[in-house]
Amino acid sequence: MDLLTTARSPWGESIFTHISWSLFWASLVGGLLFLLAHGGYMLFSQHRKRPSEEVDQLERERTGLPAHITRHGFVARAFHWVMAVSMLVLLFTAFLPIVGVRFAWVQWHWMAGLLLTASVLFHIFHATFVLDFWSIWVGPKDIPEIKAEVMREMGREDYPGPRPGKYPLGNRLYHLAVMVAGLTVIGTGIMMMWRVRTGLVERNPYIFSDITWGLTYVGHGLMGVGFVGLVIAHIYFALRPEKLWITKAMIFGTITRREYLENHDPDRWKNVA
Amino acid sequence: MPPIRDVMPAFELFQPTSVTDALGVLSRHGADAWPMAGGNDTFDWLKDRIKKPRVVVDLSMVNELQGVKDAGGGLEIGSTTTLTTIANHPMVKERFPMLAQAALLVASPQIRNVSTLGGNVSQDARCWYYRAGWPCYRAGGNICYADTPQAINREHALFDADRCVAVSPSDTAPALVALDAQFVIRNGDAERVVSAEEFFVGPGIDITKLTSLQPGDLLTAIRIPNTFANKANYFEKVRDRMVWDFALVNIAASFDMSGTSINDARMVVNGVSATPYRLNSVEAFLRGKARDKATADTAAGMAVEGAVPLAHNAYKIPLMKALVKRAIRGDAAWTS
Ligand SMILES: Cc1cc2nc3c(=O)[nH]c(=O)nc-3n(C[C@H](O)[C@H](O)[C@H](O)COP(=O)(O)OP(=O)(O)OC[C@H]3O[C@@H](n4cnc5c(N)ncnc54)[C@H](O)[C@@H]3O)c2cc1C
Ligand code: HEM
Ligand code: SF4
Questions:
Q1: Cβ contact A103–B206 (<8 Å)
Q2: What is the ipTM of this complex?
Q3: Which domains does chain A have, with CATH numbers?
């Protein structure tokens, strides 16, 4: 089975044209299997928050914390939901026709694509100049935390080591994957705007060579199907009972003081209000 | 290496003699099977070695699929009935002369003698980039070679283009849409009946096919209700030469008249979009109007609203307007 489809260009070169849609099914099934596996695992593992005595102790020590702590400001939440809507529209418009629901999808798709692009550009600006830019990154300095989190995940609740700052490790790794896939679909998607009629740019299928175009479609397709699994995992985690407090914070903006102390390292996420 | 022409690739040939057997072979081989009726479109693809089906199912020996009969308030035409039969059939000529006329204007006598109605409505796009085997959208690629300023796109679409700008080449298709025909399609044990409008699909919905036929499908018959039987109707085709040529633009129209005013009308233009292009706004406008010059002039303007010409096909706009006017006036000799 070919994972990428090829064709012979009018000039006799072998060029890529698309990814094979079996990769879409692979990503869908992969996402669902992960969900089952993780769901099963969680049935048998304990949820890791700080033990309640420790939280009581912290509450006594850290006086002056407000009852509700802002986790996501209005602008960040608005970005998240605009992005979520555009992402779902992109996924449904791209893949419903592949599963057999046929409709004129391209126009809806590129319009949602432009919305995603605009929201991501805004997000980059906002995160760089307003938010704590580095709080979402994962880097070598996080290795002790990665180690501690893995050990705790394996059941070693008492394993010493840092707890997450503002964003739990899973969130940060997820952000990294979404960033790579997102910037790829956006970059390639913008190029593909020259292949379709949009009324925004003058159609010109010859601005790049056939080989470049082939790679563009393949990159767009690969990262696009990657998003199927990523979005399934994301929605699954957002709906898991022990993570609902994060989801609620993405809707209402705040978490309670206790949730803050239970789940975060107050020394790594300071300046709360 | 230049493409090999005229030598067909090997395939397994089945020649069923009943619909049941044909359906059996088609469902057994699914997407690998190619139903073939008269072969006029099929052999182009095979001899150019551009399409290489593993299995060809020749329908010419299935007698059940042939013939015209009076059935349930209309005519039922078997899918492999030849265009010559349709053009000459007394019942077709009497009730739906525009269909007989459309069939008569296809290609040449020799081609009509073997071409079937099912094959004529299911034939593929004639865009030469695609026919030359270039890997365009319709061939499963990611580019349209025809929709560029440099392209030769004189025959291409004015309406509803979505990446692909090819047009429906069939002469009988607009007549069947104008007559509100129903297409009977069988697949395995299942049967579905779709309207002519649902049968034809545009590139937005499926960029690789002009019809809604799926692997395993067999078009068995086309039913034409008597709604527009013996009513005023009109067919005209404009082509570069008067025989053996596809339409640049053609028009099919049926009118249900009440005295001198139009009760109801269906007007369909082909050669301007990937599906027969129904003039919905014109039809609504025509209700209650007389078939005269004033009505025709207004309708012609409405008909071409939304047309997006390519580099070389803007001539189709005045051509289409003229055909709409002539159809409404019902006077082929009239132009202005
Ligand atoms: C030189 C030339 C000039 C032409 N000029 C015209 C013209 O002026 N006007 C015009 O309309 N056409 C024209 N044609 C096209 C020609 O009329 C059609 O190709 C012909 O009608 C197809 O009929 P067929 O029975 O030969 O189809 P085939 O080649 O047998 O089949 C055509 C397609 O339909 C499918 N098919 C056929 N029957 C069935 C069925 N029962 N169920 C499911 N699928 C089916 C086949 O799989 C194939 O994809 C021309 C063709 C040539 C070669
Ligand atoms: C998660 C986000 C996205 C997913 C899952 C996705 C998925 C897809 C898929 C599967 C295709 C078909 C590709 C092919 O035919 O090989 C496609 C086409 C397309 N995408 Fe996206 N895409 C996304 C984001 C974007 C963005 C951000 C844009 C624009 C800014 C965009 C613009 C386009 C265009 C214009 C096409 C049509 C190209 C054509 O048919 O020639 N997409 N997309
Ligand atoms: S018009 Fe359609 S068939 Fe012709 S080159 Fe473009 S995509 Fe291909």
A1: no
A2: 0.88
A3: 17-47+82-263 (1.20.950.20)
